[in-house]
Amino acid sequence: MKRIAHLVFLSGLIALPVSLVAGDTSATHHSTRHTRAHVQESASTQQHITHLQHSRRAAHISTASLKTTTSRGRVRRASLTVRRHRSYERFTGNSFADVDLTNGDIIGGEDPVVRQAAIDALGNMNGTVVAIDPSTGRILAMVNQKLALSSGAEPCSTIKLSVALAALDEGIITKDTPVNLGGSYHMNLTDALAHSNNLYFETLGRRLGFERVRHYANQFGLGELAGYNIPNEQLGVYPDQELPENQGGVGRMCSFGEGVSMTPLQLGALVASIANGGTLYYLQHPNSPEEVVNFQPRVKRTLDIGKLIPEIQDGMQAAVQYGTARSLRANFKQFPVMGKTGTCSNNGTRFGWFASYADTQYGRIVTVFFLEGGRPTFGPRAAELTGLFYRNLWDKSYFVAKQPADTTTKAAIGVTE
């Protein structure tokens, strides 16, 4: 009987790791009943999504084994060992600059208060800052112009702004539509933007298809110069063909911009069009006080996104309130800020993006922080620096000092589409 008891006890211990591992690799999602229409994937797509979710959760667990030591028929010790293997990407980029990155900047037509606020906020981080008046397209400050005017980098999760507007315009979603992400797990646009959920935007990308995704991206200014007669501005690239399926296809292009090259100016122009209600201006960078006096806005095209902006604003504000950009609030809480972070890497260099606009009673200002380097570089860090930038302006009474626009200002010229 003792031998039988020992066998029963051992069999219970042997079964233990299986239940523990199963508990560690499963997740429980609570769904909420909604009265709005659902975006539902096909059965094959749901199976693929579920497989991705399971593989991501299970990737951290490699082995689960039971170790027992017996002596004279007794169980002396039983222990469960779960080994975790994590792969760490090696970064070769430097997040901190050991030279003055502003050398060579042309600043004769910039707003000195805005420029100094941006320089102080950026500090010794390797990156650039572009500040824009969204009501005119005037670049108020451009710190580290060599990087700002370069051919850009992968947009990371900031590409989700373009995808969200496309899906809203096509009627695929509203901000409250629960999108199925596998099983009983659903998410709406506001939370997806706030938490920068890749799977959500991969799903939207597949529903839209590459041709529609590219069409909207081009309409929003990706793949073309953002500036008007800005010397040395280089062109970001939006590909003509979808990524191969084995590289993620259109879903990966929509979750963090795989295969896309975007410049800080292109992102700034897009966010400025959201901030001003739908006018995509050519960005202009005056080089002297005389050019500021004679400044004339130039419209590239008018975007029919006015009715979509309230749908996307909630998610952009939620990103700052409780999402990926909440680090901004450590430095600034005086005015609402709407924005979107982005973090990704390429060939050993990590990118950190944050594009935003501050909504004040004295007007709006659009800001793009783009950082590049190693592990200390990421989107939430760019958001934190943006908060410091807005704080610097607040401390200088910049928002209060701004006067209403002169009613005699020359009207914008250009064509609308």
Essential attributes:
alpha+beta; globular; 3-stranded mixed beta sheet; 5-stranded antiparallel beta sheet; disordered N terminus; Beta-lactamase; 417 residues
Question: Would you kindly provide a written description of the structure presented here, covering whatever features stand out?
Answer:
The protein is α+β, with helices and mostly antiparallel strands. It has one domain: DD-peptidase/beta-lactamase superfamily (Beta-lactamase, 3-Layer(aba) Sandwich). It has 14 helices and twelve strands. It has a five-stranded antiparallel sheet with strand order 4-3-11-10-9, sandwiched between helices. Strands 7-8-12 form a three-stranded mixed sheet. The model is unreliable at 1-37, 54-83 and 405-409 (pLDDT under 50).
Q: Flag low-confidence runs.
A: 1-37, 54-83, 405-409
How many β-strand stretches? Answer: 12
Structural class: alpha+beta
CATH architecture: 3-Layer(aba) Sandwich
Write the layout of secondary structure elements.
Blueprint: H1 2-24, H2 43-58, E1 61-71, E2 74-84, H3 112-122, E3 127-133, E4 138-143, H4 145-148, H5 160-169, E5 179-180, E6 186-187, H6 189-195, H7 198-208, H8 210-219, H9 249-256, H10 264-276, E7 279-281, H11 289-293, E8 298-302, H12 309-321, E9 337-346, E10 349-360, E11 363-373, H13 379-395, H14 398-401, E12 413-414
Parallel strand pairs: 8-12
Antiparallel strand pairs: 1-2, 3-4, 3-11, 5-6, 7-8, 9-10, 10-11
